[in-house]
Amino acid sequence: MFTPSTVVAVLAVAPAIFAAPAPQVTSFGPDLQVSYQDQSTAGPDYPVVVEENGYTSAIYHGPYTGTPTTTGAANGPTTLAASIPTGPLNPTATYYNSAGVPLNPLPAPYTPAGGLGTNGSLPRYMVESDFDFESIALGLYQEWIELDLFHDGLARFSEAEFIEAGLNAEYMSLISFMANQESGHATLLTNMLGSAAPKECVYNYPYTTVREWLDFMQRLTRFGESGVWGFINHLDSREVGQLLAQSIATEARQQQIFRQMSGLTPMDVWFENGWPQSWAWSMLAPYISYCPENTTRLAWQNFPVLHILNNPNINRYSPNDTAQDGSEQVGPRVADPSISNLTSGSCENLNVTGYGCGPAIGHNKSEPLSFPGKQVYFQWDAPGLAVGPNNSYVTSTSAGSPKWVGWSQQLNLTYSPLTVTGDNSGYTYQPEGFVYGDDGIINGTMAVMLTDLDLFVTPFNTSMLNPHIVALGLYVAG
Predict the structure, then answer these.
(1) Whether the predicted pLDDT of 309 surpasses 80
(2) In the prediction, which pLDDT does 3 show?
(3) Residue 56 confidence (pLDDT)
(4) Most exposed: 44, 84, 237, 407, by fewest CB within 10 Å?
């Protein structure tokens, strides 16, 4: 707990945060790893890989094999309601300027009236509410896995394997730099949380090749980025939001770069999409194996997984040839990458314009990954499955029977009807729609969900849909 004197100290050092955040521990990242072997219940059979190919990785990556000592999301003293009802327009939201000039007195020269945090008060770069704390703690869980993940592939794969995937030492150096960025991000978020900030955990990754690693990283950075855009403007602390925006802008660049290294177009939308925290946590949690004792837990929901059986395989030169039984993802977890060891139809190392998928600044595909009218097949998990750190969280839903498929991308949440074909299985047809002009709504790496209601939501209140979500998935539309 922070005492009043501590708060004063935080205020006193706040301006220095811009230049050099003062970490609350001595170091982060590969030079400081939790003693995972001691935390393990599996004994000496756990593989130990500390340094390979000149890069450092964590001691262990694999599943949790123990028994959870607690289950479920973090809870407050009580829960006031089953959901938050839809309210009217904010009664103070009335400003409209038809004249195009300032309507109110300027508080200072060149300073229009209004804004938040513009009255000269000294900034305090600390979370200011439970909402802030839980949101930034989620962000820190994300930064920790990125720090470990970016290092892991560099240590796991040989230089020859990188070259086979079209990446030379300069690309590897860039990824190493991005891993170092995560050290700074983790330091920043830890400082803004205080002594209860979550620590680095042990992770369980799905990839076995360089291309699968790159694909997994472009998926993981997608929900890392979108998960922040969804909550950043709801934070009580505008100061925290300011610094968080400066870190997530870097994450957006990382996602673009991993798409380029995966042979995908770097930018295929006009607007990035924001997600509620529970969507991001549902995507992230399955890849966290276990965490140190007394690691801060999160309050967000874990939705059941929506398996997109014919999720386009980014390694095919004809993505519509992707099998329809889910066999072309490396595993059943929500963000698992496409398999890269295809026996035929691979676009890797194919030097044909419009069909190759080697690393490049940009690609124009002659055959798109997906298209309006594409039949998309689903299976979905029932709730009640153990997931996340120490298998201590449980998937849940408060929704009724699924009737709709929600497609969340850009500024829109678009619905298509779900046809149920059996127990927890069905299909829909990918809808067509445009944001502005010829900007197709559905593109890129995006969230797809089953819902019991086609509730109208907008980018600022997407979380109103959470009580109606049956299952959540990740779709690579383009």
Answers:
(1) yes
(2) 40
(3) 75
(4) 44
Q: Residue 66: its pLDDT value, please? A: 84
Higher pLDDT, 85 or 477: 477
Beta-strand ranges (E) seen in 16-98 are 51-52, 55-56
Which residues make Cβ contacts (< 8 Å) with residue 118, sequence separation at least 6?
107, 111
Tell me 382's DSSP state. P
- pLDDT tens for 36-89 read 222 233 333 333 344 666 777 877 888 888 888 788 888 888 777 877 888 888
Helix pair angle (169-193, 238-261), 10° resolution = 160
**In residues, how long is the chain?**
478
Express as a percent the part of the chain with pLDDT over 90: 78
Please report the sign of the dihedral spanned by the C-alpha atoms of residue 274, residue 279, residue 285, residue 287: negative
Closest CA relative to residue 40, chosen from 156, 250, 204: 204
3-state secondary structure of 217: helix
412-417 and 375-380 beta bridge pairing = unpaired
Q: Are 196 and 298 in contact (CB under 8 A)?
A: no
Cβ neighbours of residue 455 closer than 8 Å, sequence gap 6 or more: 464, 465, 468
Token pair of 257, please? 């770069």
Nearest to 416 by CA among 450, 462, 461, 368: 450
Among candidate residues 289, 216, 313, 301, the one with its CA nearest the CA of residue 471: 301
* Closest listed residue to residue 314, CA positions, set 414, 400, 214: 214
447: phi > 0 → left, psi -120 to 50 → alpha, else beta; which? beta
Instruction: Determine the Cα–Cα distance for residues 269 and 20; give it in Å rounded to an integer.
Output: 34
pTM to 2 decimals?
A: 0.88
Round the average pLDDT of the chain to a whole number and report it: 88
Considering the chain, what percentage of its residues have pLDDT values greater than 70? 89
The confidence score (pLDDT) of residue 14 equals: 37
Question: In 3D, which of 205, 396, 388, 147 has the Cα closest to residue 281?
Answer: 388
Query: How far, in Å, CA of 132 to CA of 450, rounded?
Result: 28
Tell me how far apart the alpha carbons of residues 53 and 473 are, in angstroms, rounded to a whole number: 35
State which amino acid sits at residue 477: A
- Which tokens go with 53? 């190919």
Q: What angle do CA 402, 408, 409 make, to 5 degrees?
A: 160
CA 215 to chain centre: 13
Cβ neighbours of residue 363 closer than 8 Å, sequence gap 6 or more: 263, 264, 265, 356, 357
